[in-house]
Amino acid sequence: MQLTRRSSRHQTGASLIEVMVSALIVAFGILAMIALQTNALKFNKTSEYRSVATLLANDLADRIRVNPEGAELGQYDLNGEYEALGEAPEPQPCPSSGCSSAQLAAQDLSEWRRALFFSLPASDARVSLNAASGTVDMWVAWLDPVDAAGVAPGANQAGECPDQFAAANANPSPRCLYFQVALPARSPAAAPPTPPTPPTPSGGSGAP
């Protein structure tokens, strides 16, 4: 009988250890699922910001193509260092009687930067005319809250941002998306019409 009781006590101890090990494995599994869910939310938010930046870039590209004269004169250029928009820019509407290319560019930029402010966190942009290639270089920048910590000031994340943004030593460093807008070809001035050449009279010798 004593042997039987000892065997029963030994079996009870083994079951307790198995329960503890199982609970530990379940706990590690739950922690792994939490980490996986956190990373999924992070990447989903980053993807959302990139989609919004792409839509905003397409909007400004369409505005530039409508006003190529303003783009060629550099009236859409934003060449400052990275500085997150602190407030929505004031609207600059064109006069009701019509507007010049400069006024249209100012209206476009004010409307677009307002959309940028309300759509992306700590956002800014850089727009620069590349006259040699007939294109406009554009960077849309924002601060991604999910990876704001741990990014060194002035770090150019994977070469995403222009050097001027990296040199600003923003803390933390922004993320950027780069786009290039091709300006529409300007049709050359029409040459004046060439007057028709009068026909040469045919000469003939007749008998007197």
Helix content: 40-55%
Mean pLDDT: 78
What form results from the Cα inertia axes?
Answer: elongated
Give the total of beta strands.
Answer: 3
Taking the sheet with the most strands, its summary is: 3 strands, antiparallel
Structural class: mainly alpha
- The separation of the N and C termini measures 163 Å
Radius of gyration (CA) equals 34 Å
Supply the number of helical segments.
4
Number of domains: 1
- List the uncertain runs: 150-154, 189-193, 204-208
Strand order of the largest sheet: 1-2-3
The succession of helices and strands, N to C, reads: HHHEEHE
Beta content: 5-15%
Q: Keywords for this structure?
A:
disordered C terminus, 208 residues, mainly alpha, 3-stranded antiparallel β-sheet, 4 helices, 45% helix
Summary of the model, kept short:
The protein is mainly alpha-helical and 208 residues long. The protein contains four helices and three strands, in the order αααββαβ. The chain is elongated, with a radius of gyration of 34 Å.
